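Handover notes (outgoing to incoming on-call)

Open items:
1. AraC-type DNA-binding protein: sequence verified, structure written out, both below. Nothing else pending on this one.
2. Nothing else urgent.
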Amino acid sequence: MKSALQKSPIPENRAYLARSLNEPVFDPHWHFHSEHQLFLVQKGSGTRFIGDSVKPFKAGDITFTGPNLPHMWRSENEQEQEKNIAWSEGVVIYFHEDFLGENLLHKDEAIRLRQVFHKSLRGMEFTEQTALTLKEQMLDLIHMDGFEGILQLLKILDFISRTKEYTLLASPGYTNTLREADTERMFKVYAYVMKNFKRKMALSDLAQLTNMTPTSFSRYFKLHANKSFSEFVSEIRIGHACKLLIEQKMNVSQACYESGFQTLSNFNKQFKTITEHTPLAYKKEYEVY
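AraC-type DNA-binding protein structure tokens:
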């Protein structure tokens, strides 16, 4: 397994890096880095982890993450995709906060830029017309270089600093407490859960996987994920159920048992807690589109 803490992807002679991704799967490793990152999903779906936020991802999603905010995009059907049966496509843009020099952010003209950089520490997901416009701007940047590219990046940052069509992802006050050894350990936990969430999982299995006692594992997970292990598993299961309801048009009962829940009553309760909708209301809302 490669290191969870990536080195800077930006060459020393460049102010930013923008590139297209066309790979079997997006990088499924739980990691963080010192750069800001704008990421557009053009093709593919799965589960996205940003800080303590766990949500499904799909084509058209655009996120902005700040420095040292842990993240991971775990594609669906990973084994099939690794055989090149399916591909994941996207656009990623990396840049450092001071890519125009250290003094700019302290000027009055950069107040909105400072504000949006602060929001990025929790992760931002752009929605509605903003996501459509931002997609075109990011695709344009891919084909630019030199100072033209810097101007386009500034245009993008100015645009996202003005929009109100976004949601913040990680919880208020979320703090990255991970070290490199922790990212490897958390990756093992996430990989195990993604593979086994449809069946009942014993806490003792995860404790054994991480070489801890069950009590120690519970404390460890709560510290680094900012939620209990059972809450995390429920989020994974509900995220999967959402896709079954919308993409595969399953009924509520089917989605419940296909997502690893043992009773319909618990499924309905967890679904309402996590999505703020009943499963039926959620399904009807998306069937409108």
